[in-house]
Amino acid sequence: MDKAELKQKILEVMEAKIKKGGKTKIYLKDLQREIPGANPREIKNAANELVREGKLEYFSTGSTVMFGLPGVGMGLEAGVEKPEE
Amino acid sequence: MSEIKKHDTPMVDQLKSGPWPSFVDDIYSYGEKHKKQCAFDLMGQLELSYKHKETHWKHGGIVGVFGYGGGVIGRYSDQQEKFPSIWAFHTIRVHHPAGKWYHTAALRKLCDMWDHRGSGFVNFHGSTGDMVLLGTTTEQLEPVFFDLTHQFHWDLGGSGSNLRSPACCMGKSRCEWALFDTQEIDYELTMHFQDELHRPAFPYKFKFKFSGCPLDCVAAIARADLSFIGTWIDEIQIDQEAVKAYVNGELKPNAGAFSDRDWGPFDIKKEVIDLCPTKCMHWDEKEQKLYINNKDCVRCMHCIAVMPKALKPGKDRGVSILIGAKSVILEGAQLSTLLIPFMRLEPPYDDVKELVYKIWDYWMEVGKNRERVGELIQRIGLNRFIVDVMGMKPIPQHVRIPRNDPYIFWREEEVPGGWKRDIKEFRKRHPA
Known about the structure:
The complex is a heterodimer of chains A (about 80) and B (about 425).
Chain A: H1 3-19, E1 25-26, H2 28-34, H3 40-52, E2 57-60, E3 65-68
Helix pairs in contact in A: 1-3, 2-3
Chain B: H1 10-14, H2 23-34, H3 37-52, E1 57-59, E2 72-73, E3 75-77, E4 91-94, H4 104-117, E5 121-124, E6 131-134, H5 141-152, E7 167-168, H6 182-192, H7 194-198, E8 208-211, H8 220-223, E9 226-232, E10 237-238, H9 240-247, H10 268-271, E11 281-284, E12 289-292, H11 302-306, E13 311-312, E14 317-323, E15 337-343, H12 350-366, H13 373-380, H14 382-389, H15 423-429
Parallel strand pairs in B: 7-8, 8-9
Antiparallel strand pairs in B: 1-3, 2-4, 4-6, 5-6, 9-14, 10-13, 11-12, 14-15
């Protein structure tokens, strides 16, 4: 699988999960499970490249990092909004 | 400038009454001086947490600046109406220099920048080793990153499922016992593994720590997934004249570190020989000579620390590499276990990098979410990790304690000649 195909596959996995009503943020390990033919390092590189392209975004608890589609599910501000001045 | 709003904080204020310096004093005096509302809101929220006996911080979400998957930990107050100035109070980890040496001018610039763009509160250093800048808003993250990288030539540290900022002791910059150049390997691996440091790659965090000698000042053995601890493979260097000088009271033991109290005359038997964990030392009173059975020495460094002028580590130096220390998450806390008893280090450390990639490749493939490499080894067994994953031959040094399980299961390929199983033949002799 070349990088373009892998990136496409990652996006498809993310979208399919959301359509099924599953989690909107997933770990790298979850991506690896869904794309068994690909090398974990290649998946990591492709997912990180998708973040740079703005097609995915990181979501971190501080100790771990998850990947999500921008604007779907809990946002980067984790449901908090800046109070009115 | 708007009026500062103070909160009533009787429980937090009690912390000022102790004999020790209080962070409460520091935060309040800083808030008064710089008219920072966040200082008072911070203490107000802490008071509320003491009252409710639970935290009012939420965390998560924001991870960094553009292109980075770590270095920033999102923090939000869940009491925004009461404490609006800390509604977002993100933490920024700044990668420390190797050995944590700073020029005062750099620290002044950092403080000025952080006074302007953040709360002004810092933590030197977090347990991973980074400088921790505490408290800023989302809008300030990119400007802070720009200042750090363009003005100070510093970078963010690791967080999340990334390689965390490698850490080392001061090593050869100050310590006579540094058995390898901790700062050089720290810098080299940090630069080599930039992608893993800044972008999530792993099932969970991964830490390198480098201690120049077995005294292990950075506690690599307790805190790092891969610990590098300086050691030697030949014999401890002995200056018998200096040993005699210690015995005769001409030199102060421990380089005078405990001389503020009268501990009586130095007793080599009580303070050195009897404390050797493997009893590999002997002091011949008649000959006035110290003998060491180096084959039994476990490099604890106690004798060297007590008599630094008389004893020195050997001349053939390198590192012991240990794997798997961690705090509690999926399993309990554990110290590192020995992986490679001795390795000579040569820049650019290609053999270390090869070892690291081998460990990572397996962990990335087989590790579960939030499973540290030490937990993975617990799950599959150290023997299988050493033999199947690392492709190494098990050696006695790998055995931490003798096995207490009397049943040993061998694989066919592990027994010379192997064996054949024929269940039909077996059943002829032993009907079911």
